[in-house]
Amino acid sequence: MSKRSDVLSGAIVSLVGLIFLLNTIGMRKPRIGLGSAGFPRLVTVCLIICGVLLIVRALLSKKERAARSRIDSRFVFSLVGLTVSFVLYVYLFKKLGFILTTGPLLFFAMYVFGSKKILLNAVLSVVTSIAIYYVFTIIFKIPLPRFSL
Amino acid sequence: MISYWLEGLKTALMPSNLLIMLIGVASGIVVGALPGVTSSMGIILLLPFTYYMKPETALLMLTGMYCASMFGGSISAILLRTPGTPSAAATAIDGYPLAQQGKAGKAISAALIGSFFGGLVSGICMVFLAPLLAKFALKFGPPEYFALAVFGLTIIASVSGKDLIKGLIAGLIGLLLSLIGIDNVTGSQRLTLGIDALANGFDFLPVMIGVFAVSEVLDKLEKRTPSVQTTTSLGQLLLSWEEMKSLVVPIIVGIIIGTLIGVLPGTGGTIATFLAYNELKRWSKNKEKFGQGALEGVAVCETANNAVTGGAMVPTLSLGVPGDAVTAVMLGAFVLIGIRPGPLLFTQQPRVVYSFFAGWFIIQFMMLAVGFVSSILAPNILKIKDEVLMPIVLALCIIGSFSLRNSVYDVAVALCFGVLGYLMRKAGFPMPPLVLGLILGPMAEQNLNRTLLIAKNDWTILFRRPISLTLLLAAFVSVTLSLLGAYRSSKKEAARS
Hints:
Number of strands of chain B: 2
Largest sheet of chain A: none
Order of helices and strands of chain A: HHHHH
Number of domains of chain A: 2
Mean pLDDT of chain A: 84
Number of domains of chain B: 1
Helix content of chain A: over 70%
Low-confidence stretches of chain B: none
Number of helices of chain B: 23
Radius of gyration of chain B: 22 Å
Shape of chain A: flat
Mean pLDDT of chain B: 83
Strand content of chain A: under 5%
Strand content of chain B: under 5%
Oligomer: heterodimer
C-alpha cells in the first residue's frame, strides 16, 4: 500500500472513531454495569488510536511500499455505474418488485462485466431473475416484492 | 441399553426412513449452499412436511437437514467466496484461493471429509459424553462467556495477515458496527447518528455477504481474470495420500474445538470455525500457507463447523437448552413434533432418542455420499464466464440478504458493505477481523455488562473464577505469541530486503 493510501485510511478511521465517540456524549453511566456508552467509548478510542498509529507509521516509513498504479478510467466508470445502479435498485426494489428491478440490474451488470451481446444478456437476465423469483417464493416460501398497480 | 440401540438402528434403517434422511441430507446441502438460506430457515421450511410423520421419522429428516446444511455452506464459500451459512465464513479464507488455483474440487473434498469426521466424532461425544459435557456447559456464566469472547477477539491478531494495525482497525470497525442500533441491556438506541434506519443495527449475514461476496464481484470487475477450472477428472478431485495425511491434525483440532464450543449455549459454528482456524494456524509449521489456499485451513473450519452440530445437541437433548441458533430452531421443531427435550427424554422416549442416535451416524455417511456427488458437480459453476456468473452471484447476494428479514434495509446494507469492503481491501485491510468483531462484539459487551451487574462493578470476578481466568490467560498467551510471531517475521523481512 502507498503512504498516501495509509495516511488517508488512517485519517478516515480516526474521523469515524471521533464522530462515534462524540455520539456517545450524553449517554448516562449507570451506578452498576457498563451502560450504553462504556463499550462504544472503549472501541472508538481504540479506533482513533489505531488510525493515528497508521498515519504515523506511514509518515515515518522511508520507502513507498508499492508503486502507484494507474487507474483504469473504464473501471472507474464501471464501478461508479454499478454503485449508482445499486442505489437505484434499493430505492426501486419495493416499488417495482424483484423481477422488474433485478432483471435490469443483471442486464447492466453483464454489460459492465464486458458481455456485449445485448440480446443474450437480456434473455439471461430475464430468465435468471424469473427463475430465482420462483425458486425462492415457491420452494423456499420467501415472499419477494411484486409489482402491483 | 443394547436393546434400545438395536431398536433404534432398526427404525433408522427402515427404507422409508432412509429415503426421508436422504431427502433431508440432499435438501440440506442445497439450502446450505444458497447464500441467505440458513440452516435454521431450512429446518423451518421442512417442518410443515414433518407434521404427518412419526416423531422419530420427522426427527431424522430434520437432523439430515441440520448436518448437511453445515457442509453445504462451504460449497458457495469455496467457489464464489459467498458463504452459504455464517459459519462457512472462515472456510472462504482458504477455500476461495484454492478454487482460484483450480483446486475447487479438492477444496470441497477436504471440506466434505472434515465435515464427515466432525459430525461423526461429535456424534459419538453426544451419545457417550452428554451428561459430562452438559455439566461443563452449566459452569459457564457471564464472566466465562466474556472471557471466551476476549479469547475469540485475540484471533484478530492471527487473521490480520502481515499488517497488524490494519487488522486491528478492521476488527474494531466490526466491533463498532455490532454496537450500532438498540442496546440490548438498556433497550435504548445508540450510535445511530440520527438515522432512523440504523436503529435496526447491522445483522451479521448481510454484512458478511457484502464484504465477502459483493466486494469480490467488484474486485472481479477490476481484475477481469477468469477463474481457473482444472477439476476435469475424478483424479483431480480426489485427495492424494499426502494431502489426506495433512488433514489428520486439522480434523482432530476441529473436532475438539467444535464439540466444546458447540456444547456452550449461545456460541455456535461461526466462533468455533474461527477459533479452530486460529489454533491450527498458530501451531502449524507452514503458517504462510494459510490464507493463500491451504487444504488444512478448509478442513479445520469444516470439521469444527460440523463438530458443533453434535456438541450443540448435547445441551439441547439433555437439558432442553439450545447450543446455538440452529439448535434453538431444532428445539422448537422437537416440541412441535411431540418430543420434549430435557433430562427425562432418555427415560420417557428412548425409542425416539436411540433412533435419532443411530440415524445421526447414518446421516454422516449419507452426507459423505451426496457431498461427493456435489463435489463433482459444483466446481462446474466456475466454467460459467465471469460476465454471466458475477451478475448471478450479485442477484444471489441481494436475495440472500433480503430473505433474512424480508427487508430492503438488509439489501442496502449488503450493497453498501460490498463497496466499503472493496475499498477496504484496496487499502490493504483484511476482512476476516471485521467479521470477527461483528460476531464477538455483542457477546463481549452483553456478558461484560452482566458480569459487572452480578459482581456489582467488581472486575476481579473475572480473575476469581477458574474457567474465566484460564480463558483470559489463554487470550494473553495468544496475543503474546501472535505479536512475537509478527515481530519475528518483520525482522526476517527486513533482513531479506
